[in-house]
Write a structure and sequence with these properties.
Elements: H1 3-8, H2 28-34, H3 36-48, H4 59-65, H5 73-100, H6 106-125, H7 132-137, H8 139-144
Helix pairs in contact: 2-3, 3-6, 5-6
Length: 158
Amino acid sequence: MSKCNLVKKGISVENSVCNMCGEGEETTSHIFCTCKVVYLVWFKCYEWVDLALIVHQETKMHFSQFRMVEESEVVNRIWLCMWITIIGELWKQRNKKIFRNGHIDHMEIFSRTQLKVWSWVTSNVCLSRFSYSNWCLKPLVCIRSIKKCRFLHLVVFV
């Protein structure tokens, strides 16, 4: 739970400042959308697939708008897996910082996300075969090469 949600539930916290950036109030929207560290992760993700960056201030809106309009349903499901995995990695890194005095690195978060989604896509969930280097260099070419996936619902793994 974010610090603001903890306070709403009557749980005492030292302060409500975001542990990732040290600036904003730690709300759910801040942790996943507006934190300057998080913005760098989203920027890298959009840059990776050569899309313009639009990060909504509200988490639910950001999720619902995280689509590639002119792409197939398979492409968009895989793209949404990127979103879900980024959220999971952000949460892990935040907790690592809080509970183990870890360091937040936006490139590490993005790289872990790339690897996890590639591993999932190429491990017989989708009928695909492409190298990790191709995935990193030409993600849309790789995603578009997938014609069918063996899943009906989004798989969440973090």
